[in-house]
Amino acid sequence: MSRAGAVNEDRCRGFNLSPHTVGISDNTLRSDNPTVAKKAEENLSLALSSESNERRAALLFADTLTLLFEGIARIVETHQPILETYYGPGRLYMLIKHLQAECDRQVERIVDKFMQQRDYQRKFQQVQNSMMRSFSGDKIEPRDLDPILGEVTLMNARTELYLRFIKRRVISDFEVGDSVAAEEVKQEHQQSLEKLLKHCLLSRTMQEVIGYYITMEEYYMRESVNKAVDMDSYERGQLTSSMVDDGFYIVKKCIGRALSSASIDCLCAMINLSTTMLEGDFR
Length: 283
Description:
InterPro entries: COG4 (IPR048682), COG4_M (IPR013167). By secondary structure, the protein is an all-alpha fold.
């Protein structure tokens, strides 16, 4: 066997991709290689053991997710040429399906640790209580939410980037593999991909996290603008008082942060909330 053939067979072996296998099936592509899980566990352990004063301490979980996604992307880039060489185009979806199952398991662990370490759900509940008109207890300081809101938007942005990468790769593979297929087959493949990406645990988990984020960002915006109004001052010669500049700066910051999440639903929600606030409460 040539050296190139030996290398390819060695790469294939990690995912049960034997070049000598005739045909291909889900079993052939069974992802029983512990590489993804092992590396993800190592990265998570490293993140949890990091010092709180390290430079990227506030983004540890976003960085851990990024490393997971990058690892899977490298596997796809490595194995796609092998799939095309030995099985032909149109087979990448089956590999992605198994990789995504492992990705979901690791994302669940990472997000669970994020929820615990960042006390995310408790902060969300505290924010919810603070937004009730009848609430008379101590409110959470808006500036205390800044780090976690930034980390959540980065986590979601990395997730969206990963999902777009997967979608782009599989669609390109389907286009070549389905070039002579019936229209029904093409539609079935597209629907399978959409279902995988929309209903995978990764997507559902991040939707939940972003749902909490929107409420917390709204609270941050309202409380910060309220403070700007309370601290309003006017200097002779100025066209407006300080609360106008401060208020719009805060709104711009919140919408910009929502934009950085790469979620169109999140962005639209924050634009609607900020418009309602400016037109209603602070008109």
